[in-house]
Design goal:
Elements lengths: L1 H27 L4 H13 L3 H10 L7 H17 L3 H13 L8 H8 L4 H18 L3 E5 L10 E7 L6 H6 L11 E6 L2 E4 L2 E3 L4 H17 L2 E11 L1 H12 L6 E5 L9 H9 L3 E7 L5 H13 L4 E6 L10 H13 L3
Parallel strand pairs: 2-3, 2-6, 6-7, 7-8, 8-9
Antiparallel strand pairs: 1-3, 4-5
Helix pairs in contact: 2-3, 3-4, 4-5, 5-7
């Protein structure tokens, strides 16, 4: 019996070691960063902070730099705050800042951090890093050319602007399977106004207008653009900036398409009347669950009062997000604007 007992203990030990090895192998598997981020967000949403932290920690060595490295530090910092461990939260954020990372804190998060004694130091350091990036960041443009693109032919142009706390690559991802009813050159433009190490905003400002003018000038030099058929579009802050571009005639665009546009405060009646007299048109697509809907409806009402030609679609099941029928709404809006080319 003693021998059998020893054998049983050995067997159990081997089994435990085997399971441990298998678990380690699972941790070491090359889970894509996007999948890891999705799983962490799900745990976070369900307030399973310890599990979310453990999952990130288990992949820390795999993601040391770039956007993944930035995200590890940022998420761990905020998760520790949510888990009521401010010391670890500050430590994680500061470690990221040592690498040059800076973060975009939503108002609720900033208020959460400000209740601690070290808050002003870290927030000041974060703003200093952002200002440094602001001094060196320039506008960025990437293209999606039409199928069977002919460099000798003139094409209409769509300039598309990302939303706040977003990027060019995020906007491009919404166009992966989009097919336009007619060939356009599509230019995805990334603002030169960073809000974090890997995210940007389109504030209504001289800097943003200059970004749009600069990108348009670059495009004209490299490609044959039909300057009578230029559309500017965007999501959220990008949608707001597309409206501002038309109203202020920043570039010779003939219409805007705003998907869930952010609030536009500076509405100059004279400039809108001028845009209308030039045949400019617009489209606004949003949803009943969009937290910005009230401001959007006020804008729509104001434009309609001035009889500005406008296509409006408000989805019943949409929040502050791209519509599920993005391709359809995009093509319909282009057709609406095209009638006034």
């Amino acid at each position: 019996m003693a021998v059998n007992g020893r054998r049983l203990c050995c067997l159990l030990l081997v089994t435990i070691l085997f399971v441990t090895v298998i678990q380690a192998q699972k941790i070491d598997q090359n889970i894509p960063f996007e999948k890891l981020r999705e799983e962490v967000r799900t745990l976070w949403f369900n307030e399973e902070y310890d599990d979310a932290i453990a999952l990130l920690e288990s992949h820390r060595e795999r993601f040391k730099s770039g956007l993944p490295g930035f995200t590890i530090h940022f998420y761990l910092g905020l998760l520790h705050f949510d888990n009521e461990n401010s010391e670890k939260g500050f430590e994680e954020l500061n470690t990221g800042m040592d690498k040059g990372y800076f973060y975009s804190f939503f108002p609720g998060t900033q208020k959460q951090i400000q209740q601690y004694a070290d808050a002003e130091t870290i927030l000041s350091r974060n703003e200093s890093l952002r200002q440094k990036a602001l001094d060196t960041t320039s506008v960025k443009v990437e293209l999606k050319l039409p199928d069977d693109y002919d460099p000798l032919k003139k094409y209409p142009l769509i300039i598309f602007l990302h939303g706040n706390n977003s990027s060019l690559s995020s906007a491009k991802s919404e166009w992966k399977s989009v097919r336009l009813n007619e060939p356009y050159i599509v230019a995805f433009v990334q603002s030169s106004s960073p809000v974090s190490s890997y995210a940007y905003n389109w504030p209504v400002s001289k800097r943003s207008r200059k970004d749009i003018q600069t990108s348009f000038t670059q495009l004209k030099k490299k490609y044959k653009i039909d300057e009578t058929k230029i559309i500017i579009a965007g999501f959220s802050a990008g949608g707001r900036m597309s409206i501002d571009t038309i109203i202020r005639n920043t570039i010779p665009a003939v219409g805007f398409i705003g998907f869930s546009p952010a609030k536009l405060s500076d509405l100059d009646t004279h400039l809108i009347e001028q845009a209308k007299s030039k045949g400019r048109k617009g489209a606004i697509i949003s949803g009943e669950n969009d937290y910005l809907l009230t401001e959007q409806l006020n804008l729509i009402s104001f434009l309609k009062t001035l009889e500005y030609p406008l296509r409006v679609v408000i989805h019943s099941d949409l929040g502050h997000e791209y519509p599920k029928d993005f391709e359809y709404q995009l093509n319909r809006s282009l057709e609406f604007i095209k009638d006034r080319y």
